[in-house]
Specification:
alpha/beta, twelve-stranded mixed sheet, two-stranded antiparallel sheet, 12 helices, globular
């Protein structure tokens, strides 16, 4: 569907009251925002697993040891993706303030992921093969406890004691954004009073090998929309937002961070990996989200683009933005969070939604690294090298365009004066 009934926004406005994140820039919103403003990329050498046999050797890895001093989210059966999800959810709920516990049975969890506990499954398989060869003991089956895709969302529900629906979206790189869109729609329909929505994924051999086999991974840190771009850079982490109806948030004394104004999802229905060359599905998702938010394209102040750094995806996204924003596209500020934290796969859209709200609140668009010339065919106003201050940021768009042609778009409107990162 292009989007919900435009009238639904006015009848049941949905707001973001809390956010949390785990990213290659650090644990929490503070390190994330500080790193984004600096324009320094977290993409580089990594050691999550042996990648010596591949053609590329960079990714954006979360510093697991840097979690020291925080409440540990590491029960024996948590995968790394579960751990990221639980930590981000705890931060989001804490920032949302008191009063959420009263409606646990009316709270839902909506989570996106691509691989869930695949990393732990790979560890289990390696240990199993080693044992079969007589070189070790059989691995503990507890490694497989959270291998399924619904692991991160289930882990969040158990940790927070949530009794409402738990739904997992696995739509490749659009999963996190679609999970947030589903949560917004569920609140509007009155199915839940509060939603914990986001996504989580960890680096794993399967995706690293797969993208290398497709030759879709850059040997250097990814450079979205640049002339010499050669592919994406993988990353890992989680991001979570707390969503609730505006009237309920105000009644419990919460200070909304942003209005979740519009959401929409479409599909190119064209190819397993290549996007529609003209970005037709992506453009339709953007139009749907704008219609859902009852906004004209002229009212959007900046775009946090999907911006992977792959030649085809960047070109298709540029075409989609030009199709929607027309003559205004070359003047519309555009950034890509992936240039700094890599592509978080199923959690990318969730993290980028959180980042979009941080940019909105601060009236500042975070930069991409100023690395090489811009592709002259990309007729967009890219934010490079340093943050772009906006006189007044009011409305922003975040896009997610996935393999298989799955597209999602989210529109957020600035609301309130509470700093989301402090």
């Amino acid at each position: 569907m292009p989007g919900a009934d435009p009238g639904s926004l006015l009848s049941r406005p949905v707001v973001v009251t809390g956010m949390g994140a785990v990213s290659p820039l650090g644990w929490g919103l503070g390190p994330l925002w500080e790193g984004l403003r600096s324009g320094r990329t977290a993409i580089g050498p990594f050691d999550r697993f042996d990648h010596s046999g591949h053609r590329t050797h960079v990714a954006a890895q979360v510093d697991v040891e840097a979690e020291t001093g925080r409440p540990r989210a590491k029960p024996p059966r948590h995968s790394l993706a579960d751990r990221f999800a639980v930590t981000a959810a705890r931060e989001a709920v804490a920032r949302a303030g008191s009063g959420l516990d009263a409606c646990r049975e009316r709270t839902g969890v909506y989570f996106g992921t691509s691989t869930g506990g695949m990393l732990e499954t790979e560890v289990y398989l390696a240990a199993l093969l080693t044992a079969a060869a007589g070189r070790g003991r059989p691995p503990a089956t507890s490694l497989l406890a959270s291998q399924q895709n619904n692991g991160p969302g289930d882990a969040v529900a158990r940790d927070l004691g949530i009794g409402g629906p738990v739904q997992t979206v696995s739509a490749a790189c659009a999963s996190g954004a679609m999970a947030i869109g589903d949560a917004i729609a569920a609140i509007r329909r009155g199915e839940v009073d509060v939603a914990i929505a986001g996504g989580s994924d960890s680096l794993c051999r399967l995706t690293y090998a797969g993208f290398n086999a497709l030759r879709a991974v850059d040997e250097r840190p990814c450079r979205p929309f640049r002339l010499d771009r050669a592919g994406l850079s993988l990353g890992e982490g989680a991001a979570v937002v707390v969503l609730e109806p505006l009237d309920r948030a105000l009644a419990r004394g919460a200070r909304p961070l942003a209005l979740a104004a519009g959401e929409a999802a479409t599909c190119d229905a064209q190819h397993m990996t290549a996007p529609h060359p003209e970005g037709a599905g992506a453009a339709e998702a953007i139009r749907g989200a704008l219609a859902d938010a009852r906004l004209d394209p002229s009212e959007i102040d900046f775009v946090n683009a999907h911006g992977t750094g792959t030649p085809l995806n960047d070109a298709a996204e540029c075409a989609a933005l030009i199709a929607v924003f027309g003559d205004r596209a070359p003047d519309l500020p555009v950034t890509s969070t992936k240039s700094l934290v890599g592509h978080l796969l199923g959690s990318a859209g969730a993290l980028e939604a959180v980042v979009t709200i941080l940019c909105l609140f601060n009236s500042e668009v975070h930069p991409m690294p100023d690395a090489g010339p811009t592709d002259p065919a990309i007729r967009l106003r890219l934010v490079l090298g340093r943050p772009l201050r906006l006189a007044r940021a009011r409305h922003a768009l975040s896009t997610s365009l996935a393999f298989g042609g799955a597209n999602a778009a989210l529109v957020f409107t600035r609301d309130g004066d509470q700093d989301p990162a402090h």
